[in-house]
Amino acid sequence: METKQIGELREDRVVRIMSKDIEGKMNIYAGLTKIKGVSWSFSNAICNSLGIDKKRKIGSLTNEELNKISEFIKNPKVSFFLLNRRKDFQSGENIHLNGSNLELQQEFDIKRLKKIKSYRGLRHMNNLPLRGQRTRSHFRKNRRKGSGIKKKVKKEGEVKKYEK
How far is residue 47's CA from residue 55's CA, in Å, rounded to a whole number? Predict the structure, then answer.
C-alpha cells in the first residue's frame, strides 16, 4: 500500500522539462506539447523512440526518463519532416528549435522580412493578415465604435418650455 501512495503523491507534483512546468496529472503525450516547439507529432515521436507509454502520467516519470526526454528534445533523431526549422536560412541545415530560441528566431525572421520590404514584411508592419484572408469585414482593430453617428449639441440660446 505504501508504494501506491508514493506513486499517487508523485502524480500530484509539477514536473519541469525544458524550463516549462507541467502538471503531473497529464498524460505524457499531451503534456509534452505544453513545451514551446513540441507539436503533437513530435511528442508522438519522442514517446515512440524512447519507448515510453503515451498514456502514462508525467508525474510518474523518473529523473532519468526526464533527462532522456530533455536530451531528445535538444538533439532529436527523427525524420526531417518532424523538425520545425527545415533548410535554415543562414546555415541551410535541418534543425529543431524550442523554447526561447524558437521565439528569438521567429522575431529575427519577421525583422528580416520587414527590412527587405517583402510582401509579408509589409503586411507584418501594418498588422494585416499574411496568408490571403479577406480584410473587408475582419481584422479591424481599435476602430471607433459608431463613427458615423453624431451626438446632438445643445445651443446656448435655446431654453426648454418648461424651464421658464
Answer: 10
DSSP letters, the chain, are: -HHHHHHHHHHHSEEEETTEEEETTSBHHHHGGGSTT--HHHHHHHHHHHT--TTSBGGG--HHHHHHHHHHHHS--S-GGGSSB-S-TTT---B---THHHHHHHHHHHHHHHHTT-HHHHHHHTT--SSS---SSS---SPPTTTT--PPPPPSS---GGG-
63 within domain boundaries: yes
| pTM exceeding 0.70 | no
In this structure, is residue 134 part of a structural domain? no
Give residue 3's pLDDT: 44
Q: Are residue 20 and residue 89 in the same domain, yes or no?
A: no
Radius of gyration of the chain (CA): 27
Domain membership of residue 70 (yes or no) is yes
Number of domains in the chain: 2
Average pLDDT, rounded, for the chain: 82
CB 20 within 8 A of CB 36: yes
